[in-house]
Amino acid sequence: MVSSTAPQSGAAGGAPRSRLPRAEREQQVLDIAHARFAADGYAAVTMDDVAAAAGVTKPLLYAYFGNKERLYLACMRRAGDAMLATVGEAIAAAESPADALRRGLEAFFAFVDGDRDAWRVLFDESQPAGGELARAVAAYRERLLALVAETQLALIPSAARDRAATEVEALSNALLGASEALARWWLRNPGAMPAAEAAQLLIETVEPGLRARSAAGRRGGDAVPSSPTPLPNPEGAS
């Protein structure tokens, strides 16, 4: 006698389906959609593709997520939240603005290296230039910028924070743009260098300028303060 809970064939010849609670089924579909979007890009993937790969009917997929844009947003939220958590945890232990810079960039590139699908979903260049998806990407960028800038400001003496706020905001925007550009290059050139080395390349390029600004600030009181303590050598770090 065949059990009534035995796996059943999926839609359109897809993967077998079992009777899962809706929350589990949604998560399963989301995992598959996330992988498809990461592999092929938002523009190339259809709801038919996802339904077939997940072994569900297209009406069920629409019932769960509404449309392709909302399905993608669900994938994007997972990717964006993971990125923010990774960077936030790293910079929370920073002891100076320079240390926060180093920790943040190292965490950013470690995230890209460790979960390339999440990066591709979050920064997919085939996304529409406007609309809800573009606003969602912009919101994650703003949250990341705010996280980094607020951490930097918190490590600056309180008497200098108001003066430093504009420069911190400007530099945070510049560093995020440079980090994204370097990450895209790194992904297009597999094997060129380890992710940690890419992060170090950017740190060593930017850090002397920040130290020069710090020195000018100590002389004239107009630049962003930074820690005068030399950064640790990453090769000798434990």
List keywords for this structure.
single chain, 238 residues, mainly alpha, Arc Repressor Mutant, subunit A, Tetracycline Repressor, domain 2, 2 domains, 9 helices, 0% strand, disordered N terminus, disordered C terminus
Structure description:
- The N and C termini lie far apart (61 Å).
- Mean pLDDT is 83; it is low at 1-15 and 222-238.
- The protein has helices spanning 22-40, 47-54, 58-65, 68-91, 97-114, 116-122, 132-154, 161-188, 195-220.
- Helices cover 68% and strands 0% of the residues.
- By secondary structure, the protein is mainly alpha-helical.
- The chain folds into 2 domains: 14-66, Arc Repressor Mutant, subunit A, CATH 1.10.10; 75-220, Tetracycline Repressor, domain 2.
Structure described in brief:
The protein has nine helices and no strands. With 238 residues, it is mainly alpha-helical.
CATH classification class of the largest domain: Mainly Alpha
In terms of structural class, how would the helical and strand content be classed? mainly alpha
* Number of individual domains: 2
The CATH superfamily label of the largest domain reads Tetracycline Repressor, domain 2
Specify the number of helices: 9
Helix and strand topology:
Elements: H1 22-40, H2 47-54, H3 58-65, H4 68-91, H5 97-114, H6 116-122, H7 132-154, H8 161-188, H9 195-220
Helix pairs in contact: 1-2, 1-4, 1-6, 2-3, 4-5, 4-6, 4-7, 5-6, 5-7, 5-9, 7-8, 8-9
